[in-house]
Design a protein that fits this description.
Strand content: under 5%
Order of helices and strands: HHHHHHHHHHHHHHHHHHHH
């Protein structure tokens, strides 16, 4: 390996010098074109090698070339600094070609190593001005989630996939710690492609909050959420979710939101959210999660605007009896168990740090619980909240305040429901989580008593 690295490092140094000195000092186009050509050739050779050798494919030399070349091209140098962003773009294009989909699954570990390398992350998320690298990095992470998705849906991970999954969790932990604003901005797109059963992975993304914000302790007795200064501020959204709704369906949706008619729109709603039979086979489910997600987000943001225009803020009374709540109540009642679970998950995905979306969707979930016409709906709402709380930390702030309100407020009669007492082990689980959620913040030093009993995902 040392001999191999010695040769590869010499090759990389030569390429870096050629890129640096090609063309005039001011002529960046020549340098970037040469780099693109080199990366394209190496990526092409990698793909051929991958096809020919199949399971005997060795990813180490290619990883060495890519990472060492990146380090060489990002060294402090007056000439190289003029092409820093173009180098980043070239690398992101190359990584998009080599993403661990059907093209080169044998390169997946090396691919994740490059994407999670401290210099690469630092350059793309921190050093590149005006957050120009953020969309490119979000695209790479989305490709990783899409690759893992079919394996994670089945929850039976072979050892190689399990390693990749654990590596992905570690990358998310780094991002949560060092670049939480990035996860805040792109949470919507990531939750769109992460399977519903990947609770811990989603919690890591949804627990992010801006570094300049101090989170109020969710265990504070009588915490007045609606009085928090941040609760009226909308979070930054970089995804155009309205564009994800089919134009013909969006036209009918806008018409219903405006006029609260025709009623036939509600009866056809479930059909509009289902996959075609061919798509259902690919997606592994009958419902189009992207469509449900976009609908929940669009209707919710329209509802917030509608309530604000009337001079109110979201509350159990102000969100009731509107076209927006008609849609949510119809979905809760009309959908089958699978569809309702996906719909409630889409709402729970918006329970994050204190902002106007968290406030509205928290009220929305509690309203759906209070107004449910069957205990099955209440049980599913409880399940969606509970399963996110019994995995390892972190837990999103909005999730905690919603569950605490549900179990503490006598209006919801939570403890009188049959599903809470259906089996001794279930009752013990509820009591354990309730104890964790009811305590004030002082016992936290004694072994994090504010967190529920944890189970690995």
């Amino acid at each position: 390996r040392a001999k191999c690295f010695h040769t590869l490092d010499a090759f990389v140094r030569l390429i870096a010098l050629l890129v640096k000195h090609s063309g005039d000092q001011q002529n960046t186009i020549t340098k970037v074109n040469l780099l693109n050509k080199v990366l394209g050739i190496v990526a092409g050779v990698l793909l051929i090698d991958h096809d020919v050798r199949a399971t005997d494919f060795q990813q180490v030399p290619y990883h060495r070339i890519f990472i060492m070349l990146f380090l060489e091209l990002n060294a402090p140098d007056q000439i190289l600094e003029t092409i820093n962003f173009q180098v980043l773009t070239a690398y992101c294009n190359m990584l998009s070609i080599l993403k661990p989909a059907k093209v080169a699954p044998g390169f997946a570990y090396a691919w994740l190593e490059i994407v999670s390398h401290r210099v690469f992350i630092g350059r793309i998320l921190s050093l590149t001005p005006q957050q120009k690298g953020w969309p490119m990095y979000a695209q790479l992470l989305t490709a990783l989630f899409k690759f893992l998705s079919p394996f994670l849906r089945n929850a039976e991970l072979a050892k190689p996939v399990h390693r990749l999954y654990r590596g992905t969790l570690r990358v998310l932990l780094v991002l949560l710690h060092d670049f939480p604003e990035f996860l805040c901005d792109y949470h919507y797109g990531f939750c769109d492609v992460i399977p519903p059963n990947c609770i811990q992975m989603r919690n890591l993304i949804l627990s992010a909050f801006p570094r300049n914000m101090r989170l109020p302790d969710p265990f504070t007795p009588n915490l007045k959420v609606d009085m928090l200064p941040e609760i009226s501020i909308a979070p930054r959204m970089v995804t155009n979710f309205a564009a994800l709704i089919k134009p013909s369906f969006k036209k009918d949706l806008d018409s219903y939101l405006k006029n609260r008619a025709p009623v036939s729109f509600l009866s056809e709603l479930r059909t509009n959210l289902q996959n075609t039979s061919s798509n259902a086979a690919d997606a592994g489910m009958r419902y189009n999660i992207s469509m449900i997600n976009a609908l929940v987000m669009y209707v919710g943001t329209q509802a917030i605007q509608f309530i604000r225009a009337k001079g109110h803020s979201p509350s159990m009374s102000s969100i009731a009896h509107s076209s927006h709540m008609d849609i949510f109540q119809n979905l809760a009642v009309d959908m089958d168990t699978e569809g309702r679970y996906l719909f409630l998950n889409c709402i729970a995905n918006q329970l994050r740090y204190p902002n106007s979306h968290t406030h509205y969707y928290s009220c929305c979930l509690l309203y759906l619980f209070a107004e449910a016409n069957t205990e099955a709906i209440q049980e599913q709402i409880t399940r969606v909240l509970l399963e996110r709380l019994i995995v390892n930390r972190p837990h999103p702030w909005g999730l905690l305040i919603t569950f605490i309100e549900l179990i503490k407020n006598p209006t919801f009669k939570f403890w009188s429901h049959e599903f809470v007492h259906c089996a001794p082990e279930i009752q013990k689980l509820f009591e354990s989580v309730a104890r964790s959620c009811m305590v004030a913040s002082q016992p936290r030093q004694e072994g994090a008593a504010d967190q529920p009993a944890t189970t690995a995902e």
